[in-house]
Write a structure and sequence with these properties.
The chain has 2 domains: 73 residues, Arc Repressor Mutant, subunit A (Orthogonal Bundle); 153 residues, Four Helix Bundle (Hemerythrin (Met), subunit A). The protein has a two-stranded antiparallel ribbon with strand order 1-2. The protein starts with 17 loop residues before the first helix and ends in a 6-residue tail after the last helix. By secondary structure, the chain is mainly alpha-helical. Pfam families: FCD (PF07729), GntR (PF00392). Transcriptional repressor for the pyruvate dehydrogenase complex genes aceEF and lpd.
C-alpha cells in the first residue's frame, strides 16, 4: 500500500462483514476523503488494512459498484466513480451552457454558498485544515509571482475546495465541488478571460488572502464578508469580460465593413476613371 493510502482504512474488529467494509468506504466518500477518480489500493492491501478475507472484500466492492460508487476496470484496478458530476445532469449542464443569463444566477447562488462556507470554515477549521489552506495560498502566490496562470487557476479551485472541506458540512462540500466542476469545465464563463482583465489577477489574489486570513484567524463574520466580496468582484469582472468580447467583435465587423467599403469605393473610382479615358475625343 502506498504511503498516501496508509491509515486510510481502519481494521474491522467485530463481525468482519462486507457491509462494514461498504460502510467505511461510503463514509470516506461522503466526507470527501476519497474523491472521484481516486484509485483504491489493490485487493491484498485493502484486505490486510480492513483485516478481512479477500472474498469479503470482493463482495463489498461488488456492492459499492452496484450502488454506483466505484467502477472496476478489468486488470486496471478499482476507482471512485464520478459521482460529483452527476449532481448536475448532462442535459441541465448543456442547457445552462447555452443561456448566458445562467452565469449571473450561478454566481448569485455561489455568493450565498461561499459566504456560508467561509463562515463555517472560520468557526470549524482544524489545525490541519488551516495548514492546508495556508499551503494552497503559498502555491497560489508562487504561481502568481512566476506568472503561471494555469497553476494559479488550479490553486484557486483547490483553495475553494479546501474551504468547503474546512466547513465540515458534507452537503455543502459536495454541492460546492459540483459547482467548481462546472466552473473548471468552462460551463459558465472563461476564467482565463477574467484573469486577462487589467489588475484582475492582483485583486483576486488579494481577495483570496483576505478570505484565508479571516478563516485562519477564526473571524467568521469577516470570512463571510470577504468571500461574498470576492464573488461580487467576479460578477463585475465577468460582465466586463463579456462587454470587452462584444466590443472586440463589433470593432472587427466595423473594420471589415470599412475595408470592404474602401475597396468598393476605390473600385468605383477606378471604373469611372476608365470610362472617362475611354470616351472619344471631341472633334476640334
Amino acid at each position: 500500500m502506498s504511503e498516501r493510502d496508509e491509515g486510510l482504512f481502519a481494521q474491522i474488529s467485530h463481525s468482519r462483514t462486507a457491509a462494514e467494509v461498504v460502510q467505511q468506504i461510503e463514509s470516506l466518500i461522503l466526507d470527501g476523503v476519497l474523491r472521484d477518480g481516486d484509485r483504491l489500493p489493490g485487493e491484498r492491501d485493502m484486505a490486510q488494512a480492513f483485516d478481512v478475507s479477500r472474498p469479503i472484500l470482493r463482495e463489498a466492492l461488488k456492492e459499492l459498484e452496484a450502488r454506483g460508487l466505484v467502477v472496476s476496470h478489468h486488470g486496471g484496478g478499482t476507482y471512485i466513480a464520478d459521482i460529483i458530476g452527476q449532481v448536475f445532469s448532462k442535459p441541465i449542464t448543456e442547457l445552462i451552457s447555452r443561456h448566458a443569463r445562467a452565469t449571473r444566477d450561478y454566481l448569485e447562488y455561489r455568493r450565498e454558498l461561499e459566504g456560508l462556507t467561509a463562515e463555517l470554515a472560520a468557526r470549524r477549521a482544524t489545525d490541519t485544515d488551516r495548514a492546508l489552506l495556508s499551503r494552497i495560498v503559498d502555491d497560489m502566490k508562487q504561481a502568481h509571482e512566476s506568472g503561471n496562470a494555469e497553476d494559479e487557476l488550479a490553486a484557486d479551485v483547490e483553495f475553494h475546495n479546501a474551504i468547503g472541506e474546512a466547513a465540515h458540512n458534507i452537503i455543502l462540500l459536495h454541492t460546492m465541488r459540483a459547482c467548481y466542476r462546472l466552473l473548471s469545465e468552462g460551463i459558465f464563463f472563461n476564467r482565463k478571460a477574467v484573469f486577462a482583465l487589467h489588475n484582475a489577477r492582483e485583486r483576486l489574489l488579494e481577495q483570496h488572502l483576505a478570505i484565508h486570513d479571516a478563516i485562519v484567524g477564526g473571524q467568521a463574520d469577516e470570512a463571510k464578508k470577504a468571500a461574498q466580496s470576492h464573488i461580487d468582484f467576479v460578477m463585475q469582472a465577468v460582465d466586463e469580460s463579456v462587454r470587452a468580447d462584444e466590443w472586440g467583435r463589433v470593432a472587427k465587423l466595423r473594420l471589415i465593413r470599412r475595408d470592404g467599403n474602401s475597396s468598393q469605393g476605390r473600385g468605383s473610382r477606378n471604373n469611372n476613371q476608365l470610362k472617362t479615358n475611354d470616351k472619344p475625343e471631341a472633334s476640334s
